[in-house]
Amino acid sequence: MLxxxxxxxxxGVAGFGVVILAVVVAAGxxxxxxxxxxxxxxxxxxxxxxxVWAGGTWGNALGTDPLGRDVLSRVIYxxxxxxxxxxxxxxxxxxxxxxxxxxxxxxxxxxxxxxxxIMEVLQAFPDLILAMAISMAIGTGLPAVIVAIxxxxxxxxxxxxxxxALSVSAMPFVEAGRAAGASPLRVMARHVxxxxxxxxxxxxxxxxxxxxxxxxxxxxxGVGVPPPTPTWGNMLSDAITGLVPQxxxxxxxxxxxxxxxxxxxxxxxxxxDSLDPRLAPTVMRLVTGVRGSARSAGSASATPAPSxxxxxxxxx
Length: 316
Description:
- The protein has a single domain (18-290), classed as MetI-like (MetI-like fold, Orthogonal Bundle).
- It is 68% helix and 0% strand.
- It has 13 helices and no strands.
- The chain is elongated, with a radius of gyration of 26 Å.
């Protein structure tokens, strides 16, 4: 239902993204039971068959590739590989970058100065170029692709979380922890790190879409996950091996990438709105562990403002 003014509720858009992601993740997890064929089952008799509504056979709903492999089955199995790479790379890269950012923001000094120069060097390279260089340097394969994409996510997480840690480090409760004699590690773990949970969740969700695009680009360029393991990127790469690429070999893997990235972006926007303290203070208090703010705010709002007539001479 639309809100007043014709605006779509924040939860509705995020819920749409959640539904799409649930379908994609479920298809990837249960690919052996969902896919009508194996991802590497070849039948040259039915090579380059168009989708069923374009005159193809009923056994291959989305058509076949030059080796007679079912496109629908390969798209479903490709979701498993692409999502695994994206989740692993983002979990590794964003977590390392966020912890690094917390240390930079709290410790400061020379450590922060050197760390920021390293992050600037990493950010000076385009994500795809950096990931390609790292993947080619450490070798192709699934672990190499995960590490390459994870390194591209480190500086983004580090810079954002550092700014949050800088502002939190100046708050009174952090100063109180220092005055009580707590070690820097304890202060960072108990007081600074919980305040960085909300931006970390938003970063991780939005970085998932970027990681899928980078993985697809690496697969398209031939430095990603090697065949015969299907990914959406190397399916696009296989589509251009022919003299004239068939439209269904490009459309369906590209559509899978587009829809999945869009769903991650919608989910990231929904998480950001839900954890914004100006929009959802209750959720923010639960995430960060801050208590009593609602009570104090309520008592402040309940305190009557002094009358403008009080204290004036001659007031009736």
